[in-house]
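Notes from the pairing session

We agreed to fold both candidates in a single pass and log them together. This is the raw record for the first candidate, unedited. Please don't reformat it; downstream parsing expects exactly this layout.

Candidate A
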Amino acid sequence: MVENVIYPAYLDASLSRSEGRRVAQSAAVEAPTVDEIAKAVQQVGYDAVIERDKRYSREFETRGRVLVNNADDATKNDIVQAVAAYVGILRD
């Protein structure tokens, strides 16, 4: 079983690539939450587990993270890109 981790910083439009953003600026959203990310992960078709007490190593504030379970058929980058697209759709 492959378990991928998605931090809100991966999708945050206010961060640069060197600060941790992993998607294109056009796909990023402003201040994504773990709840939005978890909902998007479920929309993509994977199981999501929210861990609110975790923080990304490049950030000082604790924003949590989302564990993506049973993602054996996709790479981490594919999952992050799909989740970013869905978070953008959820915001509209």
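Candidate B (folded immediately after A)
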Amino acid sequence: MESRIIEIDPNCVNEFEKLKKKYKIESIFLKLNDNFNLLYVEKTLSKISQDDFLESIPVDQPRLIIYKKYSNNKIIFIRWIPEIVQDTIEYSYSNASTAILELLIGINEYMEVKDLIQLSNL
């Protein structure tokens, strides 16, 4: 499969820098556009419970999520790819995660997740 070039919206890095500097942001949801060539910030969340965080994750659509765990001050990069996602879409998100991780300095942990149960102990 041919590798696609993924463009990263600058707001992805800007929001990450805010999260690192202890602004009110606790998580950043990144999504690819319909052409799978642009990664952008879908939404940011702050001051929410873990249950609300888990409920905000789409059960049938992939996302790249940056989550700040304030209890130990770790920043976790989560590649959420539900089991039902087509291989071509999973491949696009894999390329996007590689591209964005090159720009994000300060990620402490990386998780590949296919089942929300894996996130229940964040």
